Amino acid sequence: MGSSSHQKGRMRTKRPLGIQLFECVRGSPISFRSCQALVLVLTFLSYASYHATRKTTSIVKSVLDPKTNLGILHWPSHLYLQNLKGAENNATFSSGWAPFNAKDGTALLGEIDLAFLGVYAIGMFFAGHLGDRVDLRILLTIGMIGTGLFTAAFGAGYWFNIHNFYYFLGMQMMAGLFQSSGWPSVVAVVGNWFGKSKRGLIMGIWNAHTSVGNISGSLIAAAMLKYGWSWSFAVPGIMIALVGLTVFLFLPVSPDVIGIQEDLHLKDSEKTDMDTPLLERRSEAKDKAVGFIEAWRIPGVAPFALCLFFCKLVAYTFLYWLPFYISHTAIGGQYLSDSSAGVLSTLFDVGGVVGGILAGHISDHLDARALTAASFTFSAIPALFFYRIYGSVSLTWNIALMFVTGMLVNGPYALITTAVSADLGTHSSLNGNSRALATVTAIIDGTGSIGAAVGPLLTGYISARSWSAVFTMLMASALVAGLLLTRLVVAEVVAKMESRRAPAPAAGDLPVSTTTMDEP
Q1: Crossing angle for the helix pair 346-366 and 199-206, to the nearest 10 degrees
Q2: d(C-alpha 203, C-alpha 283), whole Å
Q3: How many whole angstroms separate alpha carbon 203 and alpha carbon 206?
Q4: What pLDDT, in 10s, does the model give residues 455-467?
Q5: What are phi and psi of 486, to 5 degrees?
Q6: pLDDT for residue 275 is more than 70
Q7: What is the mean pLDDT of residues 28-38?
Q8: Cβ(179)–Cβ(149) under 8 Å?
Q9: Would you give the DSSP letter of residue 84?
Q10: Tag placement on the chain: N or C end, fewer CB within 10 Å?
């Protein structure tokens, strides 16, 4: 009893200061539903701000490494991009920025991307391991403020007239290191608060933060270009630091931390699936943090992690190079300005929002994560082909094909990094262990992030020779991503066929989920 009281007091001291102040002003404890809403909003804003800072580099690339064939597209009056029509004419970016305006400038930008994503991928493994052992609120706050600092420092190279390649390389590497703490932290926090009911759909909607961050980052960076490319980095950097401070003040990482777990157990009869955390804590012995190798051995982790390697290779090539590609490609016989290309590229992320939600909903309905992910990746192959061949025909064709491509490319990426990671982090082989979610999430997304580093790097070299070769690489990657899930797809289909042949279960029997399959 004394130990329980001590633990309860220790947990209460971890309550965020903002929540304590809110409860003092209100005069009553914050409710469980309010905490759920707060967690969703804060983690959404948190990771959206991460992606907003990540997107700025792709918008500024065409300014750092100018093109010789840049023109201004004269937009029809009914298109929303018309307000940006003259913005680039007022900027004097034609000379670029050394060292990126040299002949090997495109390759140098590819190396910058590799440095960021390489450190990000490596840091992800350590961040996930750390996330299961420390206060996630503190880890997330440090990551966000550090990201903001080094993102702004990259832009400061303009103000201080810095032209040393290794300065920019170092700033991106440090930004990547701090960014690596983000994803394992937010997934683990959401996993502590939300149950298994409609997990794919809920996390598909929540995962829109990726595309929302990309869109907002593109719009902010494009809007700031007329003031100097430094502001395209500084403004998102300041924003993520402010969101990080808000996270520190208000984010409750779990029901235990704010002392309402006991109240939940008193109301078990009133709880729904949404109220039940992803993991029920069973004993302190089972709360021992899962080791790195042990997490890799969880059935399904390896194939989904390798699949995500190729999914993120495709997705991040678009993330970092799509605005550059658009501004280098004549659409309907005319070229776009840097800022207009950046704004147009956001339609890929709009398609990504739809794709993430659609993939989550379909996987919930079919109870088949692997089948859904594989179907999207295989469908992305013709979409990539048609976007390359027909995307330059007209603006209408470009918008339509970009939207569909974004939907099919980002759908499996969103599904694997959210619902699948949560499924595997709560796999039956863990016997209820509640301290594996961040580690499993980090393994899957960390492996994917290696692919995210490889794709933009290869694109930097290959695009100098042929963009058609880049798209061939992307189509091949999508094919391999789908093939890696073959065994899991077959197992899901077989399980479905057997369940249809089997007699109907008794009323008290629980359905067998095929989303987190055990090894046969």
Answers
A1: 170
A2: 28
A3: 5
A4: 988 888 898 888 9
A5: -55, -50
A6: no
A7: 89
A8: no
A9: G
A10: N
Q: Could you give the CA distance from residue 281 to residue 430 in angstroms, rounded to a whole number?
A: 12
For residue 511, count CB atoms less than 10 angstroms from its CB and return exposed for 0-12, middle for 13-18, buried for 19 or more. Answer: exposed
3-state SS, residue 111: helix
Q: Which residues, in sequence order, are CB contacts of 61 under 8 Å at separation 6+? A: 109, 320, 321, 323, 324
| Residue 344 DSSP label | H
Q: How far apart are the C-alpha atoms of 116 and 111, rounded to whole Å?
A: 9
Show the domains of the chain with their CATH numbers: 14-70+102-260 (1.20.1250.20), 290-500 (1.20.1250.20)
C-alpha span between 70 and 469 (Å, rounded): 22
CB atoms near residue 495 (< 10 Å): 16
Is residue 333 left, alpha or beta, with left meaning phi > 0 and alpha meaning psi from -120 to 50? left
Are 380 and 224 in contact by the 8 Å Cβ rule? The answer is: no
CA distances from 159 to 57, 61, 162, 231, 382 (A): 17, 17, 8, 10, 45
Q: If you search the block for the tokens 């903001």, which residue do you land on? A: 148
> How does DSSP classify residue 429?
G
pLDDT tens profile 298-353: 888 889 999 999 999 999 999 888 988 998 888 988 888 878 888 899 899 999 99
pLDDT over 70 (residue 402): yes
Model pLDDT for residues 57-113, shown as the tens digit of each residue:
888 988 898 753 333 232 233 333 344 344 344 433 457 899 998 888 888 888 888
Which residues, 6 or more positions from 382, have their beta carbon under 8 angstroms from its beta carbon?
none
Find the Cα–Cα–Cα–Cα dihedral 289, 296, 175, 355, rounded to 10°: -110
The Cα 297–Cα 126 span in angstroms is 18
Query: Which of 195-199, 368-372, 448-452, 453-457 has the lowest average pLDDT?
Result: 195-199
- Band of pLDDT at residue 162, cut at 50, 70 and 90: very high
Q: Which residue has the tokens 């969103």?
A: 414
Distance CA 179, CA 347 (A): 24
* Distance of alpha carbon 208 from alpha carbon 187, whole angstroms: 13
Cβ atoms of 236 and 49 within 8 Å: the answer is yes
- Token reading at 114: 């590799």
166-175, 176-185, 331-340, 495-504: the lowest-pLDDT one: 495-504
Q: How far apart are CA 305 and CA 335, in angstroms?
A: 38
Tokens for 495, please give them. Answer: 């399980």
Query: Dihedrals φ, ψ of 109, to 5°?
Result: -65, -35
pLDDT at 12 over 90: no
Q: Which amino acid is at 301?
A: V
Average pLDDT along the chain: 80
Q: Is 331 helix (H, G, I), strand (E, B) or coil?
A: strand
Question: What is the spatial distance between Cα 269 and Cα 264, in angstroms, rounded to a whole number?
Answer: 10
Q: How far apart are CA 241 and CA 103, in angstroms?
A: 36
Question: Are the C-beta atoms of residues 435 and 289 closer than 8 Å to each other?
Answer: yes
